[in-house]
Amino acid sequence: MKTAPPVRCLVFGGSGALGSVVCRCLHEAGVKLAFTYHTNKAAAQSLGHELPDSKALCVDLLSIPALNQVVDEVAGDWGGLDAFIQCAGVGLTGPSDATQVHHTMDQVDEQAWERMLAVNAKSTFFAARRVASHMRQNGGGNIILIGSIDGVKPVPAPVHYAASKGALAGMTAAMAKELGKDGIRVNLIAPGILEGGMSRVLPENLRQEYLKHCGLRRYGRLAEIAAWTTWLALHNTYLTGQTILVDGAV
Ligand SMILES: NC(=O)c1ccc[n+]([C@@H]2O[C@H](COP(=O)([O-])OP(=O)(O)OC[C@H]3O[C@@H](n4cnc5c(N)ncnc54)[C@H](OP(=O)(O)O)[C@@H]3O)[C@@H](O)[C@H]2O)c1
């Protein structure tokens, strides 16, 4: 019996907390995997060793030509792409050694606003557009973006972060409409606070507040988001244009 070829997946932000768990989950499911990193080469190398045959590529999402090149390189090597997962993002726009989020609107200057929107929203649009140009040649695929509860519900959040994540919801719905005729499905997973990753910069009082209002009374697990992501990448055929809020009922 002829076996189906592996699903070809590109993950942005494989060096991050969520991205690395997503990569492991996809790898375990037997996909052909490429992932990106930016500054954390050590994390990318260690993940690469852990996941044989995966491919790690360095990219700064502030450069649209660079991200186009990464997408083209992976799709070119594999003869196409079946799934794209955008797990890269920023929650802080201060100095790289800052450990706290911006709390108030007054602390967000023009530079911070532009960086947040550029990494979280602008790069996502251009990456999805480039990915779609490859997917449409192969009859379609799944594009999965990672947003946040902050862009969906009124929760205490840095306004520029919420704006960047809110932009993804509109983008997802509009892209699904435009790309549907090419067999391309676009969905956004919006997690609440997760056990690891960028939520480490949240002040303790906010973390406690979240637990108080969360129906399940706990933070989400990275593996729970990775499981949804993997399902969408491998099995989704009709769900598109949706923002899937995974917040334990806040
Ligand atoms: N963790 C949570 O509680 C939580 C909750 C809701 C939503 N989310 C969302 O989940 C996604 C992943 O978050 P995380 O917790 O895994 O964060 P993380 O551990 O800080 O990882 C962030 C990832 O984004 C990459 N990245 C950042 N700036 C980049 C740039 N300019 N160019 C290319 N790559 C860049 C990082 O690469 P390097 O490290 O290699 O520089 C890293 O791979 C984000 O979109 C976040 O908003 C997370």
Report on the architecture of this protein.
- α4 links the parallel β4 (83-86) and β5.
- It contains 7 helices and 7 strands; from the N terminus they run βαβαβαβαβαβααβ.
- The protein has a single domain, classed as Rossmann fold (3-Layer(aba) Sandwich), CATH 3.40.50.720.
- The protein has helices spanning 17-28, 41-50, 64-78, 110-135, 159-179, 204-213, 222-235; strands spanning 8-12, 32-37, 55-58, 83-86, 141-146, 184-191, 243-246.
- Strands 3-2-1-4-5-6-7 form a 7-stranded parallel β-sheet, with helices on both faces.
- The protein starts with 7 loop residues before the first strand and ends with a strand.
- α1 (17-28) packs across α7 (222-235), α3 packs parallel to α4 (110-135) and α4 (110-135) packs parallel to α5 (159-179).
- It is globular and about 55 Å long.
- The model has no long low-confidence stretch (mean pLDDT 95).
- With 250 residues, it is α/β, with parallel strands linked by helices.
- Helices cover 43% and strands 15% of the residues.
- Bound molecules: NADP nicotinamide-adenine-dinucleotide phosphate (NAP).
- NADP nicotinamide-adenine-dinucleotide phosphate binds at residues 13, 15-19, 37-40, 59-62, 87-91, 119, 146, 148, 191, 193-194, 197-199.
